[in-house]
Design a protein that fits this description.
CATH topology: Rossmann fold
Largest sheet: 5 strands, parallel
Distance between the termini: 38 Å
Number of domains: 1
Order of helices and strands: HHEHEEHEEEEHHHEEHEHEH
Keywords: Disulfide bond, Hydrolase, Signal
CATH superfamily: SGNH hydrolase
GO molecular function: triacylglycerol lipase activity
CATH architecture: 3-Layer(aba) Sandwich
InterPro entries: SEST-like, SGNH_hydro, SGNH_hydro_sf
EC number: 3.1.1.3
Helix content: 25-40%
Number of helices: 10
Shape: globular
CATH class: Alpha Beta
GO biological process, one term: triglyceride catabolic process
Length: 315
């Protein structure tokens, strides 16, 4: 593992736990008997998908601090209200495993993820030859999500009208963050290959990331420099494009969740991602319950199901 990746790996749990604590807030669909495809889309039929559903992913899948929290290990901070649970209830899944965990990277799909005093097993170990549905939300931490969020927040006060974070990551015309994207794509492709090897008949839905920032000006909840908002929006759009391409190359369903207008600066009733000072139970700069429901709706639609069940979760 490179030194740069080592540094990034430590960031995501730190962002969720340390920042949230300071604020007082204590994851390739093959055609089979149950799947329909045509030459233009990988969208499957819903029948039979819930026989054995496995969710893989990082904190944008797990739902840290969205109540009720559950699961083992507890430090993965999974929520019963995250989109995998909503989709599982909608499908009336006979078997459902949520293997997601905060801070997860692509390498944690095949290797145990170290957490404080414990570890989360390799997420792909949850797959079986009988798995019928897999959702995957991964790639943000490989890019350096927590590192980027914290660095850009720290640099913003030095030039609120400029783009100090962009200046930090671009040296002599080389953008360090965009240079990571091809590797992120290769790693996601390898994960999708691993899913196919373990669950050859499963439908796979690869979930993109929510829009985090407004199109232009920041706000108290997202106090980034003006130029860096444009820079970061472009970066995250490119990340979603990389994820979409890898899904298409693997014959998987891509779930686009990047609808604008629901970012950290949106009004509370329209906000799907909490800012650095959450107004609702969720980790800072992460989806809230409404965001999880919105993602669940888009996953369900991609799978040919009408909308997610939003009734009270099982405890």
């Amino acid at each position: 593992m490179s030194a740069a990746r080592t540094a990034r790996r430590g960031g995501a749990p730190a962002l969720v736990l340390a920042l949230a604590g300071a604020l007082g807030l204590s994851g390739a669909g093959a055609a089979n008997a149950d799947t329909e495809t045509d030459t233009n889309t990988a969208r499957p039929a819903a029948a039979g998908l819930g026989r054995e559903y496995v969710a893989l992913g990082d904190s944008f899948t797990a739902g840290p601090f969205i109540p009720p929290q559950y699961g083992d290990p507890a430090l993965c901070l999974r929520s019963r209200s995250n989109y995998p649970n909503l989709v599982a209830r909608t499908l009336d899944a006979a078997e459902f495993t949520d293997a997601s965990c905060i801070g997860a990277e692509t390498e944690d799909m095949t290797s145990a993820q170290n957490l404080a005093l414990t570890s989360n097993p390799p997420q792909l170990d949850s797959l079986t030859p009988d798995t019928t549905l897999v959702t995957l939300g991964i790639g943000g931490n490989d890019l350096g999500y927590a590192e980027i969020a914290l660095k850009c927040l720290a640099l913003a006060p030095t030039d609120l009208d400029g783009d100090p974070c962009r200046d930090h990551y671009i040296d002599q015309g080389r953008d360090e963050l965009r240079s990571r994207l091809p590797g992120v794509g290769e790693d996601i492709g390898a994960v999708l290959d691993g899913i196919r090897e373990r669950s050859p008949d499963a439908t796979v839905a690869v979930v993109g990331y929510l829009a985090l920032l407004p199109e232009d000006d920041g706000c108290l909840q997202a106090p980034y420099a003006e130029g860096d908002i444009t820079y970061l929006n472009g970066l995250y759009r490119e990340l979603n494009a990389v994820i979409e391409k890898e899904a298409a190359d693997a014959g998987a369903v891509f779930v686009d969740t990047s609808e604008p207008g629901h970012d950290m600066c949106a009004p509370p009733g329209e906000r799907w991602v909490e800012g650095i000072f959450p107004n609702r139970p969720a980790a800072p700069i992460h989806p809230n319950a409404e965001g999880m429901a919105a993602i669940g709706d888009r996953v369900a639609e991609a799978l040919g199901v009408e909308g997610v069940q939003r009734d009270s979760p099982r405890v």
